[in-house]
Amino acid sequence: MKRLEILLLASLVGIGLLASGCGGGDTSSQGSPGATADANEPASTTKSKRPPRKKRTSTPPPVQGLARVHILAPETKVEGNDVVSTVRVRNASKGTITRFSVSEFWYDDAGNATPGGSRTHQEPFLPGEVIVLELRASKDSKFFQNQFEFSHANGDVEATVVAGFPESSE
Length: 170
Known about the structure:
Layout: H1 2-21, E1 67-71, E2 75-79, E3 82-91, E4 100-107, E5 113-114, E6 118-121, E7 130-138, E8 145-152, E9 155-161
Parallel strand pairs: 1-9
Antiparallel strand pairs: 1-3, 2-3, 3-7, 4-5, 4-6, 4-8, 8-9
């Protein structure tokens, strides 16, 4: 019988410790000096152990349909067995461009197409932002002239060649 009493007492002590360790006790209504909750204040104003949430910066909605970009004249050079074309692009639209892509097409002197390269900018392309895309194609002796085509996830892109980009105000 004594063993049963000891087992019961040990179980009650264990449950009590478990309940207080898991936050089972309510200390705000006991009037302790550390409690600052007032009956008139909402419960959400009490201090939390969680760090405060970061404020989200609002981004413009994505462009649907035709997007406008400005580009600098592309630079093309030969590096080993590759032809590397570098394109600098600035988003001139009022909205964000999603999955901005540029494809390069090469043609021989007879006007026949030869393989080129393509590149997709994965992050949202914000208004006024300038990105640099590098396109690589295997060097071919038939390369005579190249052409670029721009697109994005929600439509076409109108590209305008400009002499330079405006200075950023940042």
